[in-house]
Please model this.
Amino acid sequence: MFAERLPRTAAAFLLMGTAAATLGAPASAAGLVPISLETVRSATRTMSDDSFEGRAPTTAGEEKTVAFIADQFRKAGLKPGNKGGWYQNVPLVENTATPSQMTIAGGSAPLTFDYRKDFVANTYQVQPRTELAGSELVFVGYGINAPERGWNDYAGLDVRGKTVVILVNDPDWQESGLEGRFGGKAMTYYGRWTYKYEEAARQGAAGALIVHQTEPAAYGWNVVQSSWTGAQYNMDDPKNHMDQSKLVGWLTEDAAQRLFAASGKDLTALAAAAKQPGFKAVPLGTKVSIRLDNQIKRQASRNVVGILPGAKRPNEYVIYTAHWDHLGRCDADPAGDDICNGAVDNASGTAGLIALAEAHEKAGAADRSIVFVAVTGEESGLLGSQYYAENPIYPLASTVGGINMDSLSLAGDARDFVAVGGGKSELDDYLGRALNGLTVKPEPSPQAGYYYRSDHFSLAKKGVPMLYAKLGNDLVNGGTAAGEAWQAKYRAERYHGPNDEFDPNWDWSGALHELQIYWQIGRDLATGSSWPNWNEGDEFRAIRDRSRSGAAAR
Model:
């Protein structure tokens, strides 16, 4: 969600940009454009109101949200983006699991773990009950099988019917630099929880439990609690996802330490061993039992899609994305508020999408078409963007590139800017030009793996160059200390909780500045004729080359 930002020497540029955005002044020679403060602020306030009930997919809150976005797109001057309609249906299956206690047998003493306090658990399998009954526990380190990196935590291991215990992040996440088998401290996709469960299922594991530790996960247990309890969503599947593990979940670090101690093992020592090449999985000699009773509902959610058709090459596309969904109702705060409003995350980004649509329409049709997609299900694993990427309304081979917005900067303007996952594609050049010669700072928290945690990733996996870049923490008012304090407070007190509510005292200058930059990048892509690519050696380069060569052949 939040990254960082970049030093700027031209204070006049900053003030001019903010004034232009706020007052609706004409675009300047520097390429600044009028972004409506009222549009961004009003749309954020509306979508984060309690009446939207936290914008969970397939709820009454979704009905209000997608209708509001479609109406705002229409008012902004966009055309319906899906064959004359505003919506792309995304078939989902909703599962609300009621877990029993988790029991551990076979160790020095039996253990009982309590739901939410010690663990959270769910299942991707679509059936009324899933159960582990005396499933053998095996510690598989980081749970990575990466032959191209010479690493396989499952080597020589048969985990069919067993439950694997996994560490979050990559083996070299504590390195100080970016050198290492897994990119040093920069998280790769192998470090993400989504990958851990995918690989465990490929290996045939009956269950997969990730050990939560705040630093390598980049969020606290409270985030896991709020995100993994209540209704969970997945893509609907005619085979009911029966190829997945029966149970996926998380253990608190304390619960994991008790489990390892009862198994006659030391978690700290084994975690250190798991960082070394050639690590061999360790059977724990204990067995886990747990039952999930599941309430299942199948229902389509919706992406909202609008388009500004191009004037010269309408069959070439630039795309903006932002997710409209949040968590709905969640753990109540001490005052009893149980609505996770998601004002910053991501009513603000969706409001930015609306404001950008408005600004591009006022500037007139570009050469290429510009597509605006408000996607569903990001909080459940990027489901809406995944569905669009797998079922594109506009061909991905003809999609030039795009920008994703996940939480605008509401701490005020800053002197720095960060490209999350910078150095991956030629879109960095577009960003550099939009910054008017300012320097982009390196990503400050590469170990958090932000590039793999929002909707741009779904399109990137299909080869479309996607940019995820944000203002940083060196605030104009208060400097880096103030910016870091704002971020820390947000993560500790508001992120994925009921306190992420609209604040009338927010300083919108940073958000407006971000949107000006996003506008300029999109406009450059839409008025140019170039086809930016991933840099040589990037993981997404080969698929882009194949898709573009296929498009040229047609």
Q: What stands out?
A: Residues 1-30 have pLDDT under 50 and may be disordered. The longest strand covers residues 282-308. The chain has 15 helices and 21 strands. The radius of gyration is 23 Å.
